[in-house]
Amino acid sequence: MLTPFAAVGLALDVAREGLERGEMPIGAVVFDEDRILGRAHTQEKALGRRIVHADLLAMEQADEVLGFDKPRGLLTLAVNLEPCLMCMGAAITLGVRRIWYALESPNDGADALLKLWEPPVEQPFFSRPGEIIGGIRSAESRQLFAEYAAGDGPSGMRAWARSLG
Fold first, then answer.
1. ∠ CA 84-113-89, rounded to 5°
2. Is 71 exposed, middle or buried (0-12, 13-18, 19+ CB in 10 A)?
3. Phi and psi (nearest 5°) for 122?
């Protein structure tokens, strides 16, 4: 089984692949205890769309692999940037039980919001992840965003990436 350090390292590798293609350097992997079920980087530039976040794309791949089958073990999402509210909701829907990430995303990260969520009844098939850990390999992730900010992406996104440092 992957450790948090190793899993976020895989997400960083995928983020670097995205950066090399001119994308925002966000990468994600989804895995159970036996296998990687999904891996993706953000693809806003390549696909010309906004709702193509790395974590969402990796979870969609995992969902295709799993279908309605339950994962063989604990389902984990590792990403180099804190999931946003949309991606956190997708993680809950998919049944992710652990989320490990590198950097906090102060403007749209959902970790703090999830702590405030008080559903009247938490269903076993639709409940918050039992473990969310941030700050794993954050310096490496910060460096990727600094490289992106120094590049030729949209000025607003470069400014946002600089704010993560």
1. 50
2. buried
3. -90, 120
Other CB atoms within 10 A of residue 125 CB: 9
Tell me which residue has tokens 């969902």.
63
Per-residue model confidence (pLDDT) at position 117: 75
Give the model confidence (pLDDT) of 104-138 as tens digits. Answer: 998 888 887 777 777 777 776 677 888 999 999 99
Interatomic CA distance for residues 93 and 121, integer angstroms: 15
Do 100 and 80 contact (CB within 8 A), yes or no?
A: no
Which one, of 146, 151, 152, lies nearest residue 164 by Cα? 146
Which residue has tokens 């992997």?
29
What per-residue string of b and e applies to 22-45 under the rule 16 or more CB within 10 Å gives b?
Answer: ebbbbbbbbbbeeebbbbbbbbbb
Report the relative pairing of strands 27-31 and 98-103 from DSSP bridges: unpaired
